[in-house]
Amino acid sequence: MFWQDSPDCSKGLLPAALSPLGVLRKMPSPQTMTPGLELQSPKEAEEPQTPAQRTRRTSSSKEPSALHDDTMRPGLGTLRRAFSRASQRALAQVSKEDSGLLWRRSYSLFRSFRRALDEGPAPGQSQVAIMPEVSSRVKDGVSWQASSGVGPKELESKAEGKSVADLITERQLLAAFEQLRHLETRLVAEKASHTFEQDPTAFARRAMDLCLHYDGLAAEIGAIVRETLGPDGVDAAVLAQVAHVVRAEEEAHPASPADGDFLCTPRRWRQHWEEAVQRSAQERVRQAGAGGTSGAEEGSSGLAQLLAQLGGLVRHDLQKVRLEVQPAYAAAGFPAWEAYQSAFHGAVAQTLQELAQDAHGCEQLYLLLDWAANVYGSPDFLGSPGLEQPTEPLPPLLAPDVWAQLERDYTSFLETKITGCFDSILELEKSRWVAAEAPNVLQGFYHVPLSIDVHMLVAEHVKAGGAISTELEATTLQICARALGLFVPRFEKAFLESKAVSEPHLGAYINACEELRTSLLARFPGTLEELEKPLVAATCSFQKHLLQDLQRDMQPLFRVVCTKGWLTQDTLRPLMDKVLAFAHHLEHVVRPWAQETLQEVHRYVVREYLVQVLRPRERFRGVERVNSSQKMNLDAQAISDTFQGLGSEAKWLDQAIPCVAEILGETYKDDIQRHLETLIQSYPDIRRDHILAILALRRLGRRRNHSLLQHAQELLKAVAKAVNSGATGPHVLFGEIEVPTSMDVLITCI
After folding, report:
1. Residues 572-578: contacts with CB under 8 Å, at least 24 apart
2. Of 285, 337, 360, 449, whose CB neighbour count within 10 A is largest?
3. 3-state secondary structure labels for all residues of 107-139
4. Number of domains in the chain
5. Which residues are CB-contacts of 663 (< 8 A; sequence separation ≥ 6)?
6. Could you count the other beta carbons within 10 Å of the beta carbon of residue 250?
7. CATH number, domain at 428?
8. Residue 394, domain member (yes or no)
9. Are residues 175 and 143 part of one domain?
10. What is the 3-state secondary structure (H, E, C) of 23-48?
């Protein structure tokens, strides 16, 4: 028998005990199975045989099995060698999975045959077995001529004298399929005519040969798909034949027969072709970075190189599919482009998910997210406008849960990284303090790199997050806001504790905080409001220290006010010189804070001047009191002119010193009440203690003082109501002046 002479079928493809060969060997040979039947001529095979003729042929061919084998060997040698050449390439590529599938298919087929042998066909009805769906990757060395009883001329008549095996080997796929289809149709017809009622084993042998040839043809289709994207490629004519053969098989076997005949069952070669495309894409994708160190082991650079190789390989292969493979399949209406793109998409997704499991650190996680979102997801990933995306959207490259986990891991690492970046900025500023580097003047303002460093840090990470997704951008912005909110107080404390505190540095950091507050809030509206509070607090702190330094220098100069020497000397000049020098620094501070600071200096000068007036070290009487009043008016005018020249907008301070001077120098006592009214109405924060101190300096007598004080109290109550209702401004001047209770004040009250 042919099965005994076929080395391929009994070695490696089917277990010996369960293969059709092994079982058939144990079965008793029917009387009709003779060498004469197997080697009959085409003419004899076509002529109908009567039962008598079949009986005579059977009775005359009873010979020992050894003689039967010897008779088969000379005729099968050439056929076996031809078919073996056709199957060597496919057999070399068969995987363990395909072998198992083929074994299951053969075993299932044998069970059907065994059932046919045991039960026999019913009268008028053919006995069939359903052919299971399996992988078609194996070409077996089974010769149709040796097992079907059909002569060589019949198999060679339609293909220039070539057998089906040779046609498959030479990849004349359509011609091979046409012959197989012809033989299949003939075998079905013979089965329907009850030709095999007396010899069911012959039908089993011929059906198995036919199925194995179909499997060989399917295996050749898989091999063609495998070689399509290889370095040598496949000829376009062969690809076109693949498409035509698949379509021809679908037309030949549109649906499973109603009687369950396995021979005419659809073989689903389109599905087999798609699976082959998927395996080919997986093999190609696995070549990216093959043999090298994984991206996780080499770090970010290794992962970046691996992703670059992966992108280049996928782009190259899909370009080849679109420009070379797709046109070859298009003639048969085959959707090669969609199938290949879907296959590569799935292979890339699997590879990327494996890389995600081994990714560590902020950089590697971002590389994966960025490659998936911006490189692979880019419309021009394929590098040509003609290589469009599929009509139906592909599934996400990474599963939603995998993508969400990647983003969570990335943001966790990012939070630590951004905190470390702010620490580096602080250390960089400290190094400048130690080196005593003075701030630069850029576009007329004190400038330090702090603002630029923070802006670049926030903008860089927020932009990177936005390149991945809107959600990641918002999360990154929140991380930056929290980190900056914690950084500002630490930076403020470190600077104020350093030895670098000076007017230029304080002005520069006021500018930096204001720039961060305005620009960040303007650039990211509705997201960074929480930063305004720490930035304003730090700015106010720097401004406070700026004023404290000035006040510390000016405080001793106020002690000469309202002294004997003050009446004859220009004691105000040193004070104004200090103000002018300080104002020079304010010219390099941004206007909102420069104006506010200048007004604070203006208020401080007026307030400290009044403190010396209300708590004089010496008392003036007579002419000296009048002279002191005139001196105060001159000083008030000088202070007002100086600050007005510097640009101070605190004009509400100009009336304070002149009002007190008018009360002290007024010769017509009835007008003192008018001056008190002006003072109280101009400065609602004045208190009863301040009125008493002013009246004590004037020494008007008990009755007049009592009348003026009573009238002042009524005015104070009216002003207090106006302040509570918001009718007057929140200016504070006298409220910060403490007046001690002295004996003169008590006498004035009495």
Report:
1. 572/635, 572/638, 572/639, 575/605, 576/638, 576/639, 576/642, 578/550, 578/553, 578/554
2. 285
3. HHHHHHHHHHHHHCCCCCCCCCCCCCCCCCCCC
4. 4
5. 672, 675, 676, 679, 694, 698
6. 14
7. 1.10.357.50
8. no
9. yes
10. HHHHCCCCCCCCHHHHCCCHHHHHCC
106 and 252 within one domain: yes
Q: How far does CA 108 lie from the centroid of its chain?
A: 50
3-state secondary structure of 569: coil
Residue located via tokens 């004089």: 616
Which residue type occupies 269? W
150-169 average pLDDT score: 63
pLDDT at 21: 33
Angle made by CA atoms 217, 221, 224, in degrees to the nearest 5:
135
Query: 369 is written with which tokens?
Result: 């997210």
Strand partners, 442: 445
Residue 741 — very low, low, confident or very high, per pLDDT cuts 50/70/90?
Answer: low
Which of 391-395, 479-483, 542-546, 723-727 shows the lowest mean pLDDT across its residues?
723-727
Residues 443 and 346 grouped into a single domain: no
Q: How far apart are CA 253 and CA 245, in angstroms?
A: 12
Model confidence at 445, pLDDT cuts 50, 70, 90, reads very high
Q: Which pLDDT score, from 0 to 100, does residue 698 have?
A: 82
Looking at residue 729, what is its pLDDT? Answer: 61
* Partners of residue 440 on adjacent β-strands: 447
Residue 95 confidence (pLDDT): 41
Same domain assignment for residues 258 and 311: no
> Domain of 125?
2-276
Asked if 350 and 282 touch (Cβ cutoff 8 Å), the reply is yes
Question: Computed over its alpha carbons, how large is the radius of gyration of the chain?
Answer: 52
The residues pairing with 447 across neighbouring beta strands, listed in sequence order, are 440
| Residues facing 294 on adjacent strands | none
What pLDDT score was predicted for residue 668?
A: 83
Phi, psi of 27 (to 5 degrees): -80, 145
Instruction: Give the pLDDT band of residue 740 (cuts 50, 70, 90).
Output: confident
> In what helix (H) or strand (E) does residue 446 lie, and over which residues does it extend?
strand 445-447
Report pLDDT digits (tens) over 1-48.
Answer: 333 333 333 333 333 333 333 333 333 333 333 333 232 333 333 333
Identity at 287, one-letter amino acid code:
Q
C-alpha 288, offset from chain centre: 22
- pLDDT tens digits for 475-488? 999 999 999 999 99
CA of residue 28 relative to chain centroid, distance: 69
Check whether residue 565 and residue 427 sit in a common domain: no
pLDDT per residue as tens digits for the range 623-645:
888 899 999 999 999 999 999 99
Residue 4 is predicted with a pLDDT of 31
How far apart are alpha carbons 636 and 624 in whole angstroms? 18
In this structure, what token pair is assigned to residue 738?
Answer: 């403490």
Total-model pTM: 0.67
- Cα 263 to Cα 211: distance, rounded to the nearest angstrom: 8
User: Rounded CA gap, 652 and 735, in Å?
Assistant: 15
Say which DSSP state 500 is in: T
- Supply the DSSP symbol for 555: G
Question: Which residues face 446 on adjacent strands?
Answer: 441
User: Are residues 348 and 408 both part of a single domain?
Assistant: no
The span from the CA of 459 to the CA of 740, in Å, is: 56
Answer whether residue 61 shows pLDDT above 90.
no
Other residues' Cβ atoms within 10 Å of the Cβ of residue 42: 15
SS3 79: helix
**Contact indicator for 353, 285 with CB cutoff of 8 Å:** no
